[in-house]
Amino acid sequence: MSSKKPLRILLTGGSGDLGSLLSLSLLQQGDVPVVIDMATPKVAGVGFFQGSILDRDLLKMAMKDIDCVIHIAAWHGIHEGGKTPAEFHDLNVTGTFNVFEAAAAEGVKKFIFISSTSVDDQYGIYGHTKILGEEMARAYAHRHDMDVITLRPRAFIPSWNRTVYANFIEWAKWFAKGAVHISDVEQSALCALDFLRTGKKTPEKAQCFTVDGAYDFTAEDLKNWDKDTLMKYYPEFYDLFIKYGFDPARKPKVLDITDTKKILGYAPKYSLRNMLEELKTFGADGPPSPFEGKKKASPSQPKI
Questions:
Q1: How many CA atoms lie within 13 A of 38 on its CB side?
Q2: The Cα angle at residue 221 between residues 217 and 223, in degrees rounded to 5
Q3: Which of 71, 72, 66, 73 is nearest to 9 (CA)?
Q4: Beta carbons within 8 Å of 101's beta carbon, 6+ residues apart
Q5: The pTM is what?
Q6: Residue 299: what pLDDT?
Q7: What is the pLDDT of residue 162?
Q8: CB 3.0–4.6 Å: which of 100, 103, 157, 252 could bond 108 by disulfide?
Q9: What pLDDT, on a 0 to 100 scale, did the predictor assign at position 303?
Q10: What is the pLDDT of residues 202-217, one digit of tens each?
Q11: What's the Cα-to-Cα distance from 255 to each of 6, 185, 222, 268, rounded to whole Å?
Q12: 53 with 102: CB under 8 angstroms?
């Protein structure tokens, strides 16, 4: 248990992949995670409000005695084939407004908003909703003097999510293009929480921080990338590259996370080497989900 003062933290969409990892870590460090989600949490021991962030009355109940909100709930780019623009706007925009408004009404002053690097796709269905969410974050930070941190991770769906990736190899080929592991996104949220816990202020209101992964390559390597660069760093994995059909000539896209490291103390740990080691160890099945064998929260758990 941590010596830090425990915080009561509301996780919207807290039954999803990121919210579940955060719930485990928050419990381990002595904080009190409270989940609002349609789905039952994967983690036992959390407070649980079953429902949607579109339910303002439920949000009002869930926000009682909360010290900090981590707002995760959203439809993502992978949902664009199955969700309408109206559904994206309802959850990602109206839902985000509801969460900020409920926090403001309850006097919550600490808020972490999980945005996305998809804001670069400013006219896309998903990207546009995140732009509007970031604008709301700035408005509430100014209007209600909230301490808001906006995190902009690139895509981070984990390898064990079989609704998205058929197997670990499929995930690994996506990751090799340049990506961030969900464990590092979790770390960035915990860094932001620790920053807010201490009462520090970001240089800008509702400042946005890009979240990318760890890379073993130098800037010079990236500048002069060719098909031999990967072999320079990972010669022991040559057979894996051949076996699974990786394209060594594909240059990974690396994002600038200077401010995220400097201000929030973020230090990503999972790199292409980690992925290759897991591929070698576990093969197509990949590493097990961190929730395998864990006791789930009960659907009848009292709403607290």
A1: 7
A2: 125
A3: 66
A4: 56
A5: 0.94
A6: 44
A7: 92
A8: 103
A9: 45
A10: 999 999 999 999 999 9
A11: 33, 14, 12, 12
A12: no
Q: How many CB atoms lie within 10 A of CB 245?
A: 8
237 is written with which tokens?
A: 């994995």
- List, in order of start, the domains of the chain with CATH numbers: 8-220+232-284 (3.40.50.720)
**Secondary structure of 152-199 in HEC code, one letter for each residue:** EECCCCCCCCCCCCCCHHHHHHHHCCCCCCHHHHHHHHHHHHHHHHCC
- At residue 301, the pLDDT reads 43
Given a cut of 70, the residues of the chain with pLDDT beneath it are 1-3, 293-304
- The reported pLDDT for the residue numbered 241 is 85
Express each pLDDT in 92-142 by its tens digit.
999 999 999 999 999 999 999 999 999 999 999 999 999 999 999 999 999
Report the distance separating Cα 261 and Cα 267, nearest Å: 6
Q: Is 45 exposed, middle or buried (0-12, 13-18, 19+ CB in 10 A)?
A: middle
pLDDT confidence of residue 239: 87
Do residues 14 and 22 make contact, with C-beta atoms less than 8 angstroms apart?
A: yes
